[in-house]
Amino acid sequence: MERTKSALADHFYECAMSVIADENYDIINEGGFLDSDFAQAATNIYRNLLQHGKLSWVFRETPLSIYTMGLNWKIKNNMPGFVSCSDDNRTGVSRSESSIFLRIYCIEDDDVKELLDMMNEAWYLMTNNA
Question: What is the mean pLDDT of residues 88-116?
């Protein structure tokens, strides 16, 4: 039986919190965000993907746009994928090029970590104008 979208998002959040506990993210250390803020932002991205039933989103050319954590995020999943982060004045784009989600209904810790890493990188580049 397929898990509900709510249960999938809950699982994603738990994975994100687990990954964050094992990592050292600039967005938390320097940005003043809580672990739960960052995990929730990534979950909001995932939940948005699920809400639109975008299994085919994996192959789309148009980035997913979402406002969460007080920032604008764009995520492009297919190769080369990227994450961008922007506020009213600046934008940072992850330099990592990776597909983030190969399967949206079967998420593993590595998928969650990939998204968190790319989000952190985009935020860092935005705030440090690199």
Answer: 80
For the full predicted model, state whether its pTM sits above 0.90.
no
pLDDT bucket at 30, cuts 50 / 70 / 90: very high
As a whole number of angstroms, the distance between CA 48 and CA 109 comes to 19
DSSP the chain: -PPPHHHHHHHHHHHHHHHHHHS--HHHHTT---HHHHHHHHHHHHHHHHHTT-GGGGG-SSPEEEEETTEEEEEE-SSSPEEEEE-SS-EEE-S------S-TTS--HHHHHHHHHHHHHHHHHHHTT-
Chain mean pLDDT for the chain: 84
The CA distance from 22 to 82, in Å, is 23
